Amino acid sequence: MILAENNTLPWWRRIRRRLYYGLLVFVLWVASRLPLNTGRWLGRSMARAAAALRPTERQRALSNLALAFPEMDNSSLQKIFEDSIDALGENFHDTLAVPQLVHRNDMVREDLAQGQRGLVDELKQLSQSGQGVLILTGHLGCWEMLGAWVAREMDQAGLGPLAVVTGRVHNPPVDRLIQNRRQKLGMKILPRHEGAAPLLRHLRGGGVVAVLLDQNTRVENLPIPFFGQDAPTPVGFARIALRQRIPILPVALAKSGNGHLVQRADAWAPPAIPDDSEEAIRELLLWCNQNLENFIRRNPAQWVWFHKRWVAPKKTSSP
Question: Which domain holds residue 294?
Answer without folding.
Answer: 11-302
